[in-house]
Write a structure and sequence with these properties.
Layout: H1 34-55, H2 60-77, H3 86-97, H4 107-115
Length: about 120
């Protein structure tokens, strides 16, 4: 029987294991469905709103700045087939999370006006 050599591997090449440190690790590539992307964005924006409420005294500027990485992460982690849902669910997540930092006053009507 004849041995077949792989065309890209030189003769006598030794396969070495990948390093186990930081250089050898890659960021996992989760693939979220459209619904999963929306839930991720909503949960992340509620967490961002809580952080802004506690640390930045309900700063809408800080909330808007922290919205950008959440939107980018949602767009990067959603499946390519469900990519059309990212521009829909991320603004909904923004609106869902802005409620704690909106600064509305008194009752449901005041809170809704603060969100708007």
């Amino acid at each position: 029987m004849r041995s077949v050599r792989h065309p890209q591997v030189p003769a006598g090449a030794v396969r070495r294991p990948r390093p186990r440190g930081q250089a050898g690790r890659r960021m996992p590539r989760p693939r979220l469905t459209g619904l999963g992307g929306g839930l991720f964005a909503c949960a992340a924006m509620l967490l961002v709103a809580g952080i802004c409420w506690l640390l930045f005294d309900s700063s809408l500027f800080a909330y808007g700045l922290l919205f950008l990485p959440v939107a980018a992460a949602t767009a990067l982690w959603v499946r390519p087939a469900d990519l059309i849902t990212a521009p829909v669910c991320v603004p909904i997540a923004f609106a869902a999370g802005v409620w704690p930092v909106s600064g509305g006053s008194g009752g449901l009507g005041g809170e809704l006006m603060g969100v708007v």
